Amino acid sequence: MGVYKEAAPTSVTGIRMNVLTTSLPGLLILEPRVFGDARGRFFESWNERRFREAGIGEGFVQDNVSVSSGRVVRGFHFQRTQPQGQLVFLTEGRIFDVCVDIRRESPTFGRWESFDLSAETARQVYMPPGFAHGFALMSARAVVHYKCTAYYRPDDEGGIIWNDPTLAVPWPLADPVVSARDAAFPTFADFVAS
After folding, report:
1. What pTM value is reported for the model?
2. Is residue 41 very low, low, confident or very high in pLDDT (cuts 50, 70, 90)?
3. Angle value at C-alpha 88, between 85 and 94, nearest 5 degrees
4. Is 146 a catalytic residue?
5. Is residue 6 in some structural domain?
């Protein structure tokens, strides 16, 4: 798990969010203010002005939704030549979220951070372009939303195997369900050599 350093909360038109930095440059945890009562909950998932004040200047061009159930692990996914920055949050369930720095020029290349994300907390992760992403379900079902800074290109897709021995992520699931594609991804060492 990462060590967080809380930055000054940002505020736009009275709606606040906490911005937490991590040990990986540019990787942020965002905690929007959640309003709740007997009817349910409300939070602002995206506000361009608020996010610019938090230092996130990239524009988002595509939204994706991933629905998973069972003992699923997904990842690690990335785009090779047109990397996507991503804002990740849940509207249902809970995940163990992992972000791997694959920016070759980065001083933290090959390091990763993990986070507990849930619909209940509304906590968000912002990954700048140059990260590989994966997650494990910690609930029976999860609905994960991604705002992306670049369009998805199937011909540009890359991956690193989820249980890579060099990365040694301590996944919280024994015998997870992994897609055939994800199980065939190369190791981190093969990625580095490519």
Report:
1. 0.89
2. confident
3. 155
4. yes
5. no
